[in-house]
Amino acid sequence: MAENEYVPLFETRQVKGRILFRWNAVIRIPFIHRLSQRFGKELPGIDIFVCTADPLLEPPSMVVNTVLSMMAYDYPPEKLSVYLSDDGGSNLTFYAMLEAANFSKTWLPFCKKFKVEPMSPEAYFRTASEPLNVQEWPSVKRLYEEMKMRIETTTKLNQIPEHIYKQHKGFREWNFVTSKRDHQTILQILIDGRDTNAVDIEGNPLPTLVYLAREKRPQYHHHFKAGAMNALIRISSKISNGPIILNVDCDMYSNNSESIKYSLCVFMDEEKGDEFGYVQFPQSFDNLTKNDIYGCSFRVIQKLEVHGLDANGGPCFIGTGCFHRREALCGKKYEKNFRFDLKKLNNTKVNERASLLEETCKVLASCTFEHNTTWGKEMGLIYGFPAEDIVTGLSVQCRRWKSMFLDPERDGFLGVAPITLLQLLVQHKRWTEGHLQVFLSKYCPLLYGYKKIPLKLRLAYCAYNLWAANCLATLYYVVVPCLCLLKGITLFPKISSPWVLPFAYVAFSHHAYSLGEFLWCGGTFLGWCNDQRMWLFKRTTSYLFASFETILKLLGYSQLAFVITTKVADEDISKRYDQEMIEFGVASPMFDILATLAILNLLGSFGAIKKVTMHADKGFKVLDQFGLQILLCLVLVTINLPVYQALFFRMDKGKMPSSVTYKSIIFALLACTLAVY
């Protein structure tokens, strides 16, 4: 091979697909050994953003594990900076970060010496057995457990001990904090990677570690996660200014020590690297049950659909596990002939002392800094949507940047999936509401992306943007055939009619293909059944509420809100989750709808069975006339079996509340009565 011959840092392989966002689907294969051979240690700086918002819903001990896993990447530590945005403004989280900074001096050399994966201490010690020839293993585990106990004890007491309070100047900031929604900017550089004294127990340099709680005042909108990310972009530009930014949620720890190098194979490719604005990794979870009781794995979407998006313009930005080019995220348009030298972009040295940097950078996270600027409009993450990630990724692509989806054999990141049904439904309500609001705004992919991104990519965006609209068709098939069956109205062809064949073919082929896809992507038959059940539950509740909420917002009757999914659960809930029992447990309008629809179809099935059995001479005629409607009701009854168990048979705390049971029975009987008479 000639000395100057171009050798790509990644390879693209074509796979076949059947629908729009699977046409020409591709798989990307990075070659990190070529990256090391070509660039050695001349690698760009990486700024990692971790966002948390509530120490009660997102425990500091979990946040610490995510931060430590990010600090432990197989990457030059002097070129690695980790930033935590604490939108809860909690001194408990700050204390946990101090503990993390201290423990990192032991954890990082341990990870590098023994090539530890995953790099989260909690995940590693939970899954790994003690090696025979590793003397440090017991002592490191003991240090971690002691740190974890201190953090959890402090969190439980909700108070920082006096002797700890005096150990760091940062705690004095909370003397001026009124509440988590009313406080000044708190910025603390806990580890200054430029300081020659910032070393681990073996004398190796440590990554930079920064804590930020941006200013909040009741009279100013803080724009939730998008506002936090934009504040981090500005703060980091003055401290480390890494040309590549990785953002993760606080529960999404690093599971692959080479993830940074995988992404750099894309960004640093000499021929095509300059075209890419961001590289998205899959959103995977480490707490899924064997049969994925809540259908949280996104199995088919991530194994099939996203690869099709990749081939037709690039995947969406999904809010976590994404590497961004700083210029692209900050509003720069892609220019075909412009070359980015990532090695030199962050070579500017910052000479200010850490204490001076802390003071001078605070203004960048103030409430008023963004006034009369393009932040939240053209720069940074876009404001005004619950799904700020989707609209931000779309805007980056419309500035002519491409994106790429990387799915290495070992998951890059692992997070925490919802372990109760209500958590899942509320989470999907926010996602679908955000998607629908994007579709109904000026950022509608069909219009905003016109002549900017390929038509196939615009249409693929719309398939996700219109998730919420699916509630209408689903509710029709769940409600109307059942009521018409009780009334004696035929909706489908007779069983004896040849016109029944198209219905049978479509139903069978669709579900057979769906099952085949699910199994091919590594799922189980019961997992597919659970996925179909959650599909029904989400479309009759989450999508319905998302549609109403969006309409109310457009009419000015509702304000934008951001609901945080809790990452904690008591022992009983976790036990039932491990046993794959669906958790209800609390009263909710969503459960009222689920239970009412379940009972409605149960009554419809009873009515159909009564017609068939009590009139033996007309039984075959009834089956012939209403066969498809009866089958549909029976299928829905089968899908809703866990709901009936929760309503009438379960005695544990995860059962359906009595108030939901009574209301659903009354609503269902009322609907049946009105339908019949």
UniProtKB/TrEMBL annotation:
Compartments in which it is found: Golgi apparatus membrane
GO BP of this protein: cell wall organization; cellulose biosynthetic process
Chain sites annotated for binding Mn(2+): K225, D249
Primary residence: Golgi
A single GO cellular-component term on record: Golgi membrane
Family, as annotated: Belongs to the glycosyltransferase 2 family. Plant cellulose synthase-like E subfamily.
Name of this protein: Cellulose synthase-like protein E1
Organism: Gossypium mustelinum (Cotton)
